[in-house]
Amino acid sequence: xxxxxxxxxxxxxxxxxxxxxxxxxxxxxxxxxxxxxxxxxxxxxxxxxxxxxxxxxxxxxxxxxxxxxxxxxxxxxxxxxxxxxxxxxxxxxxxxxxxxxxxxxxxxxxxxxxxxxxxxxxxxxxxxxxxxxxxxxxxxxxxxxxxxxxxxxxxxxxxxxxxxxxxxxxxxxxxxxxxxxxxxxxxxxxxxxxxxxxxxxxxxxxxxxxxxxxxxxxxxxxxxxxxxxxxxxxxxxxxxxxxxxxxxxxxxxxxxxxxxxxxxxxxxxxxxxxxxxxxxxxxxxxxxxxxxxxxxxxxxxxxxxxxxxxxxxxxxxxxxxxxxxxxxxxxxxxxxxxxxxxxxxxxxxxxxxxxxxxxxxxxxxxxxxxxxxxxxxxxxxxxxxxxxxxxxxxxxxxxxxxxxxxxxxxxxxxxxxxxxxxxxxxxxxxxxxxxxx
Length: 437
Ligand SMILES: NC(=O)c1ccc[n+]([C@@H]2O[C@H](COP(=O)([O-])OP(=O)(O)OC[C@H]3O[C@@H](n4cnc5c(N)ncnc54)[C@H](O)[C@@H]3O)[C@@H](O)[C@H]2O)c1
Ligand SMILES: O=c1ccn([C@@H]2O[C@H](COP(=O)(O)OP(=O)(O)O[C@H]3O[C@H](CO)[C@@H](O)[C@H](O)[C@H]3O)[C@@H](O)[C@H]2O)c(=O)[nH]1
Prior knowledge:
Elements: E1 2-6, H1 10-21, E2 25-29, H2 33-40, H3 51-60, E3 64-67, H4 70-76, E4 79-82, H5 97-109, E5 114-118, H6 126-137, E6 142-146, H7 156-161, E7 166-169, H8 173-183, E8 193-196, H9 198-229, H10 233-241, H11 262-275, H12 281-293, H13 297-304, E9 313-317, H14 332-342, E10 346-350, H15 355-362, E11 367-368, E12 381-384, H16 396-402, E13 407-410, H17 417-423, E14 426-428
Parallel strand pairs: 1-2, 1-4, 2-3, 4-5, 5-6, 7-8, 9-10, 9-12, 10-11, 12-13, 13-14
The chain binds nicotinamide-adenine-dinucleotide (NAD) and uridine-5'-diphosphate-glucose (UPG).
Organism: Aquimarina algiphila
Active site: 261 (nucleophile)
Keywords: NAD, Oxidoreductase
């Protein structure tokens, strides 16, 4: 099939590449000329494991091409995916200007039947709005379908190729059949394509993300309570997670959820509720608890250093909002770094993939290190913000030899308490007992 993808970010590029992998001819359109030039030169503009292999293979096979021209994209594709940003607006709602702006252009330009697929995360009623905007100018038939994306960054290719489910919101038989044909190769393992109305599809995405954000937040509250009463959240997590009704996943406490999705999507659903006079009380709490959780290590650090962080230097391992990505949007590490800088401290940071993005934001306000151990030189303490695999079995002797104060503040509970006890370092984590030498 001939497919066009408008917006070539994390979702658009993965969608375009994976659809080319199953034999479709895909044109990826992006407004960012530099990005398009990079992709034309064979360069993947984001860090996403395994994407490079598929990207390269499909470019060489002539199935994946790139353009800055929406017109070209619209001429090419019978199915047009919109994978455009829907960032948080000032009032917490999803900013639909990118989606509706492109919809307007589509209405003015299409000359034959197209299926316009909304892959961006958008509030209930957006498919209807897109339909209206296109219909203002369109001189041919078209259908608008809602097809929310559930991929996770860091596992995006795997998630797209082997989705647990594909949700298609459509009220058109013709469009539904085309979507089923397109996605057939991805559901061979028996996972379903769930067809529903557009509004339910739009809400499914927000409900899934908000539920997961609430699950994490619930565990963060349990962890905070563990600290007050001397229980161990790791043990509680294992005890709870073995109940299949609860499940083991997304129960890991830490310094809060971040990223380009959970924070904005929880806020957008909360705001959508307000718009129809519904008060999402759970979401209100989730937002507030998570905001505070991002700096949960700060009181521990301040107490350890007697409230005097002035001129202390902290090594920070992990800047990305989670491992296996270079994405720093709403990363808890950055909230903590801001607080440390405000308190007069200095920061030496290391992250395997996200340092370039952080450099653009912080410039020379913090130092960057080439290796995780270099970050420890002449620093007072180590803070861990992201659970990259390489931090999981560190050389504790090197850590002890380098740090001025022999102490680790771990926002992701990377180490077993009993193991750290044997290593002889002071250790503060989330929802577990402190080790104070
Ligand atoms: N990142 C994720 O893991 C993820 C997962 C599921 C859903 N989503 C949703 O998918 C949507 C896209 O997210 P993303 O992370 O891929 O965003 P992104 O910011 O990584 O990419 C968006 C791309 O759109 C391009 N763009 C902006 N305006 C354009 C225009 N007028 N024409 C063509 N291109 C244009 C930008 O240059 C950018 O390359 C959002 O609604 C997001 O909530 C994201
Ligand atoms: O037990 C857990 C699991 C996750 N997190 C944090 O939650 C955030 C989000 O993690 P994850 O869901 O793995 O990353 P995303 O790539 O943001 O993916 C989410 O957001 C995407 C965009 O909407 C959806 O498509 C995915 O299904 C959804 O998992 C990160 O900060 C994690 O550190 C925890 O604190 N504890």
